[in-house]
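Weekly modeling sync, notes
Attendees: S.R. (lead), two postdocs, one rotation student

Agenda item 3: backlog of single-chain predictions. S.R. asked that every request posted to the team notebook include the full sequence so nobody has to chase files. The rotation student volunteered to paste the first one in as an example of the format we agreed on. Action items at the bottom.

Example entry:
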Amino acid sequence: MRLAQILSYMAMFLLVPHVQAAERIDFNRDIRPLLSDNCFACHGPDANHREADLRLDQRDSLLDVERAIVISENPDESELLARIISDDPDAKMPPPGLGKELKTEEIQRIRDWIEQGAQWQEHWAFAPPMRSQLPEVEETSWARNEIDHFIGARLKESGQEPSDEANRRTLIRRLYFDLTGLPPTVDQVNAFCEDTRSDAYEALVDQLLDSPHFGERMAVAWMDQARYADTNGYSIDGGRHMWLWRDWVIDAYNQNLPFDQFVIQQLAGDLLPEATIDQRVATGFNRNHMITHEGGTIAEENIVNYVADRVKTTSEVFLGLTMACAQCHDHKYDPITQQDYYRFFAFFNTLSDRGHDGDGGRNATPKLRARSVLRKNQAEIQAIESELSELRARMKETLPSQVEWEEEAREQLAQRGQNLQLHPVEVIKVTSPNRAAPYDVMEDGTVFLPSASGRSPSISAKIDQDNITGLRLVFEPHESFPEKGLGHGRGRSMNGSFLLTAFTASATTVPSDQVDLYGQLNIARVTASYSHPDFPPVDCLDERDANGWSPHPKNQEPQHITFQLNQPLHASQTPYVTAMLVWGGGHGLTGGKYRLYAISGEDDGSEIPPAIQELLDLSSDQRSPEQQIAIRDYHNSACEPLRNVRHRIGNLEDRLRHMTEEHEVMVMDIANQPRDTFMLARGQYDQPTTKVTPGTPASLPPLPADAPMNRLGLAQWLVQTDHPLTARVAVNRLWQLFFGVGLVGTSADFGSQGEPPSHPELLDWLSVEFVKNGWNTKAMVKQIVMSATYRQSSQVTLEQLRIDPQNRTLSRGPRFRLQAEFVRDNALALSGLLVTRLGGPSVKPYQPYGLWKEISHYGSTPATAQVFVQDHGDDLYRRSMYTFWKRTVPPPSMMSFDAPNREVCTVARLSTNTPLQALVLLNDPQFVEASRAFGAKLMVRPGDLDEKLTFAFEQATARPPTSDELDIVRGTFERELKRYQKDPKQAAQYLRIGESDKAFLEVTEHAAWASVGMLLLNLSETITKG
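Predicted structure, as returned to the notebook:
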């Protein structure tokens, strides 16, 4: 039988050219991947699924002479090879039916390895990196630093040569995107091209490494790995506040915090001696995971899920290992047992966190209040205060538009009430989801709440009229309430009052206990009979718990608030209305007695406060100076000419508050009574078995002798100078940032299922260098981008494509599409709209209307982040890394460009090419507005048509256009100009998109220039790093 097998294999072998016979087989590179893919599942680390008590992942078992699995230099007597080539289905390995079968060349590779002596190697990633000698490079003039010696040697080995250095225009654009995520200006490009200094390139690198935008660029990738988001995830996906941790990351990169300290502070900053507030904020890294407070879930199971997420993230981010595979059983491919997993688990199972937490927009325990680390930027604080003074002075100017407004306001007030009718609704019931509340509904439909409970009541009612234009809530005082007021508020500031923080309503064909998202009513305007200056009625339309409408201090007289609808409501179509009210969180700020009405007609002038109405009855010369100031300030607070000034003031006040006041962030801690950790049968939370203590995988080096058995000891273990994984993984991720793929292509998996390094000696050399230089991230980045390898032209030849289509040998420079955030940032920067300030809370730029409705639970929970409320002013144009990230519905334009949802750790993004990306660039309001602003810049720029077009092309691509390209762009401008001259209304409609200031330019020419801007922003070259 054995002879027949051998003869059969020899016959097959003779038919195939023996091209690899002379090549030296490397076990880790050539053999281990084959065994891992085809054999380890049954003959690997997992003891519970191991067959025939045979391990092919261990030397002693694989080379066991008695079992003759592999006989060195004798493939024909090796059972391994015999089983692989067997025709007997009972003997063949891998067994038929598993879908695994080795190819002819792979079988030959195993034969060659055995013939060459079957040299065994431990898995490369589990041995400490060794600094090898630099390979000799024939073209010494090409190599600029040590990196190039390794790349040059590999290119020579594969019969290739390096590409020429890219031109300066390409290099500066590449550097700007790689180190800041932003494009250079035309002036910056020209200055670099004209810089004749020998160290001009290095000076540019140093300048960009010192840029505050370097920290932002690096933080984007780290946020993916740390699964940063602004919501909790799961079904309800309510809001959270973690931006202080994001600020810490940006600052850490900008301050060049050594990577070992970067690791220690994020894993165990709270356990450092005399830990600072900023070090405790850093531990938010392992609180970025998803959290739930949803009914029906089991708190103990949730805790296990949270800790498992910390294990997965920590092992993947710092070790490059898929440790999560050992949660239910021993790892099938890597030497990680289930016991190893739960000992690692024990490091993260000591928090005071709760299984149900994070409701109502509140951060889950443990948490703390802190100021942003960016508070240290006193220069920015002073600049904000100075600009606020100037803008507030503008708000005190008397504008010509005030006279016209006063006349219109008097006319509205004269008609007030004549065009409005109130219609009582039939209240069906009042409910308070998730919280029992003793609501009484009187015969006339008045809702009465005798005590301060029931934070989110829903009123289900029926209407009888068509053409309903709005809803009104009328509040009445009651003698049983504090101060005989309108609500249950207690305390000096709001005694007897209430705070209505949110209002939403829907219309349906059948009664509903909660707001129906598909029938949700769009509210156009909110007015009130009276409002506190700090709590205007419009604040009911956002979700912030701290603001809303309050009639305080006029709490002893009836008050009302009116919600005007965008579209009339008809009882003949949708006769049932559900209205949800959300009251302020603390101090019992709930309304006590109120009634819902439907209204028809318009309540003209209702938004004008009574005090201002009285002043409108006086002519200008009858008013006192104080009254003149009051009516001027009211006009300026609402008039259109100062709209953007008001937005700017609001943005700056928010910014100042975010930099100087304390805010909440989730952190790590140690509970007073930490939980015990048990191994869990099949990973089930309710099936504990053996109790375990904290520890690291037995296949890796032990903890330092003096390390504490907690997260601090774990962090110190990770950054030991001889740790085999941490530095390799970190360096590989840096390489991935700049070349699109790491030296290890599977950057999340350095185990046996991952790819071996394309340049193992280079990876080890860089890893040792990284540690030797004090874990200096900026120095390592500089080392990479200063290399001739990085500076190569990305232009590819047919020969290069034939030999190495994926560029794994690095015979050419990196070229790939910008990542999602930088595509948008690039458009905003080119248009001049980008607001570049650092840090602060997340913002909500344009988003398709109603996008969150499909998954929102608004109306059944006090959770936030259920209704999207767009921001205005500067917040529309912040860098994309600050965009509010809702896990279940991430920003759609960025998802189209392959951004992850951040439900779990992501160490490498996918890169796809779909029509959706072109549709985003052509239709997203952010990009349409950017093209408008870009067009306005071009239109007012000095020069003739071709000069302007050339500048525009250079701005987008960092190079001048060819004559053919210039002809195309010129033709686009001329064609679009003719089109818009025939239809000026279409031009005006196009230019209305977006909230940024509209340039007072001739509309048809401006629209034509905007079309040029759109063309250039859509170029493949514009959104590609070349």
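Discussion: group reviewed the output briefly. The first strand starts at residue 367 and ends at 370.
Action items: rotation student to repeat for the remaining queue; S.R. to check formatting next week.
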